[in-house]
């Protein structure tokens, strides 16, 4: 099959943000509690009328520009999201907005594992020789589903978008190894379920519930325990798939959910703290967007250099967890 190159990355977040002190006005919490338990200082949130797709398009344009690829060359757009502007999918509006007129576009839903699963999916099309240029977007606006009276969840999440351009390139080995898992038995610990009653005849349904979704529900301790176990294990399995050792990891680029989860995974893998890419303090948990958002900042800062090995890991609702070992 063809070699794969990660040719560009970009990101975009809403301007508006909420600090921990802002949240302390809404619920019984404090800046000190949030920082010590999570590492989060602020999170960006869509304003009324602002779309997720506009940020996904902005992130995509930046990624294409870095890659030196014209929008017309993109053959496939995959948008990993759990909170699209439209239930029929948001990838096509992004495709139209950026002018990727020749591309097919679809959404992919795998919560906070969505970006890694989307990256792996996009890479398969290149490996198979079907497409030469694929745009993979991670985008979420979980603020749409947060109960702003629930201090256990409202402090954690923020909105944002990131995107990566994948290209076929002979001799390139952008995707070195993967490992992906799901366990639907854990859905009860983290979900955002349809609130209507689709099995009832229309006449007896509660019209006010039609189309509505529940607020995001989470059992924080269960998700925490799951993540601490799953993240190092899935990275080790992806490394084994790549035929590589832990010592070969240049950077850990994990889903940004909680500083304590990232530190514990880095400890278990023997990766020093300065090799853990983190912007969690500035954005909170942006779900499918967090990995490309962190990657984008680290690349543009000059921390991540061409040829370096990144261990990516996403984890979250589903439950789902996935790792990709990537050469930047
Ligand atoms: N401010 C102050 N106190 C709080 C807050 C808050 N914001 N939230 C909870 N508390 C209280 C609790 O009520 C509890 O009080 P009690 O002892 O009187 O009952 C106490 O703090 C401890 O609560 P815990 O839930 O045990 O706190 P914990 O240390 O586990 O931290 C947290 C909670 C931060 C949510 C942690 O469990 C966590 O990060 N879990 C992982 C969550 C995660 O990563 N989710 C995203 C997955 S990605 C996706 O797919 C969406």
TrEMBL record:
One GO-annotated biological process of the protein: fatty acid biosynthetic process
Metabolic or biological pathway, per its Swiss-Prot or TrEMBL entry: Lipid metabolism; fatty acid biosynthesis
Lineage, opening ranks: Eukaryota, Viridiplantae, Chlorophyta, core chlorophytes, Trebouxiophyceae
GO molecular function: 3-oxoacyl-[acyl-carrier-protein] synthase activity; beta-ketoacyl-acyl-carrier-protein synthase III activity
Keywords of this entry: Fatty acid biosynthesis, Fatty acid metabolism, Lipid biosynthesis, Lipid metabolism, Transferase, Ubl conjugation pathway
EC number: 2.3.1.180
Catalysed reactions, as listed in the record: malonyl-[ACP] + acetyl-CoA + H(+) = 3-oxobutanoyl-[ACP] + CO2 + CoA
Name of the featured protein: beta-ketoacyl-[acyl-carrier-protein] synthase III
Family statement: Belongs to the thiolase-like superfamily. FabH family.
Protein role: Catalyzes the condensation reaction of fatty acid synthesis by the addition to an acyl acceptor of two carbons from malonyl-ACP. KAS III catalyzes the first condensation reaction which initiates fatty acid synthesis and may therefore play a role in governing the total rate of fatty acid production. Possesses both acetoacetyl-ACP synthase and acetyl transacylase activities.
């Amino acid at each position: 099959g063809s070699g794969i190159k990660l040719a560009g990355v970009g990101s975009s977040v809403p301007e508006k943000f909420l600090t921990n002190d802002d949240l302390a006005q809404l619920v019984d919490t404090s800046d000190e509690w949030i920082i010590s338990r999570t590492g989060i200082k602020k999170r960006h949130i869509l304003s009324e009328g602002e779309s997720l797709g506009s940020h996904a398009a902005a992130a995509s344009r930046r990624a294409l520009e870095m890659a030196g690829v014209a929008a017309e060359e993109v053959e496939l757009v995959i948008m990993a999201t759990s909170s699209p502007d439209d239930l029929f999918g948001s990838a096509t509006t992004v495709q139209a907005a950026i002018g990727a007129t020749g591309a097919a576009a679809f959404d992919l839903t795998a919560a906070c594992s969505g970006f890694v699963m989307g990256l792996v999916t996009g890479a398969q099309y290149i490996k198979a020789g079907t497409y030469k240029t694929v745009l993979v977007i991670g985008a979420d606006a979980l603020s749409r589903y947060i109960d702003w009276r629930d201090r256990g969840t409202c402090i954690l999440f923020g909105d944002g978008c990131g995107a990566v351009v994948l290209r076929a390139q002979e001799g390139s080995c952008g995707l070195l190894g993967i490992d992906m898992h799901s366990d639907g038995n854990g859905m009860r610990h983290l979900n955002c379920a349809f609130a209507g009653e689709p099995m009832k005849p229309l006449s007896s349904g509660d019209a006010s519930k039609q189309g509505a979704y529940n607020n995001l529900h989470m059992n924080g301790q269960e998700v925490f325990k799951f993540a601490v176990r799953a993240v190092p294990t899935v990275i080790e399995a992806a490394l084994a798939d790549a035929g590589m050792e832990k010592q070969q990891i240049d950077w850990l680029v994990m889903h940004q959910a909680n500083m304590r989860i990232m530190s514990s995974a880095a400890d278990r893998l023997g990766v020093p703290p300065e090799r853990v890419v983190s912007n969690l303090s500035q954005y909170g948990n942006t779900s499918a967007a967090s990995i490309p958002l962190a990657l984008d900042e680290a690349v543009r800062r000059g921390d991540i250099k061409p040829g370096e090995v990144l261990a990516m890991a996403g984890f979250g609702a589903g439950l789902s967890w996935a790792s990709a070992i990537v050469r930047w």
